[in-house]
Amino acid sequence: MKKHGIILFGHGARDPRWKEPFERLAAKLRAARGDQPVALAFLELMSPDLPTAVASQVAEGCDSVTVVPVFFGQGGHVRKDLPEIVEKCQAAHPGTVISCATAVGEDDAVLEAVAEYCLREMGR
Amino acid sequence: MKKHGIILFGHGARDPRWKEPFERLAAKLRAARGDQPVALAFLELMSPDLPTAVASQVAEGCDSVTVVPVFFGQGGHVRKDLPEIVEKCQAAHPGTVISCATAVGEDDAVLEAVAEYCLREMGR
């Protein structure tokens, strides 16, 4: 069976509580994806970093890995830092196809859910 | 009629394209809220900052203003920086009730939408 890993890529922060939503998101994806690998990775301040997470999924036998930037906007971290890291990961693991999704905050259904949350918080 | 403003509070970034999802989110909320004020504000690198956005909504006649942190996790920016800024805004505008929501990434429906996006990107 082909293995297709997903890595949720976040910025990272000093406060360990910052990553709670990322862990909840990973748990939702694990529940939905059966035994397909799901991992977190961070740009800075938290571990693992992306090369470590990619190497781990390659070691698990992933034929392909999709990196999803869990960012709202696409600034320098997503447009510049991330492609550079992914390029190095791809060079290090030529037998695995490593691809990047668009940042989650660009998705309209995600923005709809955020808007609904705002309206609930305001009592509409 | 009472005016209840909402301010979408983001981190800010150097790349102006970073804020596109925030502008789309604000447009969704304006469509849903009729003539109730909706504004963006940023912690750094982009303008306006939060005190400027709050002062503007107070000048528009808002009795209350809700600040919604458009962040995934609640780290130092949301737990420490934001309350300090809001406290100063509240002191500057005692006639308006200024409150803060929990970061949008803590909301389960938002995380569900992000998970659905990830699954779509993976071909499930």
Which shape of chain A, going by the Cα principal axes?
Answer: globular
Structural class of chain A: alpha/beta
Task: Please give the oligomerization state of what you see.
Answer: homodimer
Domain module tally of chain A: 1
How large is the count of helical segments of chain A?
4
CATH class of chain A: Alpha Beta
Radius of gyration of chain A: 15 Å
Corresponding CATH architecture of chain A: 3-Layer(aba) Sandwich
The strand order across the widest sheet of chain A is 2-1-3-4
- Please report the distance between the alpha carbons of the first and last residues of chain A: 48 Å
What are the segments of chain A in which pLDDT stays under 50 over at least 5 consecutive residues?
A: none
List the chains of the largest interface with their residue counts. Answer: A-B, 51 and 51 residues
Amount of beta strand of chain A: 15-25%
